[in-house]
Amino acid sequence: MAVFDKFFQSAFSVDNVIFGFDEGDLKVLLIKRGESPFEGSWALPGDLVYPTEDLDTAAVRILEELTSLKNVYLEQVKTFGGVDRHPLGRVITIAYYSLVKISDYKLRPSSFAAKASWHSVASIDQLAFDHSEILTACVERLKQSVRQRPVGFQLLPPKFTLTELQHLYEAILDTELDKRNFRKKILSMNLLVDLDQIQEGVAHRPAKLYKFDTLKYQEFLAKGYVFEVSESKTKYK
Length: 237
What we know:
The protein has helices spanning 55-67, 131-146, 162-173, 179-188, 214-223, and strands at 11-22, 25-33, 42-43, 46-48, 75-80, 91-101, 113-120, 175-177, 192-198, 208-212, 231-234. Strands 1, 2, 3, 4, 5, 6 and 7 form a seven-stranded mixed β-sheet that branches. The protein is built from five helices and eleven strands; from the N terminus they run ββββαβββααβαββαβ.
């Protein structure tokens, strides 16, 4: 039995990458670590998995313990198993991600999270551990997902303009999209309902208002699609 001892000396952790959309900007939820290792550094909300706990349960628990966020749909993205990724020993982590509406949640950091706040993806420099690598992988997964499934039902107001919807896609895809091609593509999918209303109380020319067709939205979520429109320049590096 001793021959197997070296195979049972690793720990497992979960790191949550929670994206939020706010005023046209893609943000991610970070915590400031209040204990070592990497005390005082910004990091993803993550921690070790209990020996008697499954991974999905751990992801939900850890996110709530560190930030107070709960009832968040979490999806597994990738496993990171670099031998030296944790200074205290061999730790294999499973990354989860989600996209939420920031205004729906109030942050209350606790446990070893000294602070919790939203940060623009474009402005993030260095994170603790290998969390920069994890964040990059989840950004790429999010970009892939938005090309295959609709987005915006929980992120936009019940009534929105095509410009607001385009800004959401641009924030996630991190590109500027051709306005004409975007509108042609999104309207051809019959995903939106024209409310025959226009904006009120705006300084600029009021735009038409739309809402999502709930049944069509759910159909696209289940079946998927290919969403490709002309892009121009990259916003994030």
